[in-house]
Structure prediction request, 139 residues.
Amino acid sequence: MEDREPLAWKAEYALGVPEVDRQHQELFRIINRLRQTPAGAPAEHAAKRAIEGLVHYARYHFSTEEAFMLDIGYPDADLQAHNGQHQEFVRKVEDLGRIEHEGRPVAEAVAEFVYQWFTQHIPVFDRGYVEAYRRRKDA
Ligand SMILES: [Fe+2]
Prediction:
């Protein structure tokens, strides 16, 4: 696969929680590395390893967010809904890593999904707990 423009982190993704922002940026770096994984038979193995690495880091990141939500007393129903999103993400990435993609490199398919997922999840779900945190701090 030829070199591609990296997917850019945008200021609008920043939530103002330094550790979470740092981890989200690392996830972007992982997505970009995944997009550079070459296609073809021997590379499929490298792609699987890269996807495992992504899942490992995503689990670590989700546990940081979940600890944060518990810490700020985020309402249980919201926390459960958010955790459900995280679990679904891991399930989906693991499934995508296993199936064939009609000749499309698996790394590319996973990177595309992960990018779409995070750019939709951050402004809605992550922004939600950050706003609850700010309200609590200002109260
Ligand atoms: Fe999240």
